[in-house]
Amino acid sequence: MEKQNLGYEAVVQLLRDHPQWFPVVAAALEEAQTIKSNRFAGAWILERAKKYGVQWIPNFRKLVSYGILQKDGESSRGGRRAYYSMPDIDGVEKALKEFNFPQVAAPYTAHEVTDSGIAKRKTVLVPFYTNLASCGGPNISEGHVDDYREVSTESAKPGYQYYLVRADGDSMNQAEINSGDLVLVRVQDYANLGDRVVACTDDGIMIKEFHRQGNSVLLVPRSDNPTHKPLLLDNVQIQGVVVTTMPK
Fold it and tell me: Is the pTM of the predicted complex or chain greater than 0.70?
């Protein structure tokens, strides 16, 4: 296969599988064309992608897995930054010019109003994070989008941001959150007493029931497993409130 076809075919396949990635690829192409060394950081791509309306954090491993980007090194807490390069700039540019993909991953309706006036169910695309949250124990991971799932607007109501995670563990199995379920979370940094929340603590990220005890936060499990105990914490960040679950 010719070199140009490598990038071309990679982009076509990616956008067939994940059309919402068009603006991210376009941003990466612009960065590659701007940087003479063709070596750039993911954060630089993200800044360009925001101009296209991208409001989520892309996982650039997806572009690497499709062969659109190559990765050089790994990020570290000590300040080391991973860099990327685009081996076939011409092929990527050709694919983006030839295929008129939408530039913004906007919510879409799965069913429109019929001639009879009956409004059928509408859906939106919600980002899915593979390992963002854990029920039963912390599961720290990079908070990057791994996929998108179709969710009814009856659950993901307009006007709010949402994300999906897969529950792991049995600490909330008496609160309708079982291991393996998809959990729909509304993004917000506060919670009411009794809300099921995604909480970021010093020990990691978890799903628990939100309560207060004095000036501290009490994260309560709802489980038939007695090994799970309430956690009384002073340092807790709420990352969202659970709206509903989708059984596996």
Answer: no
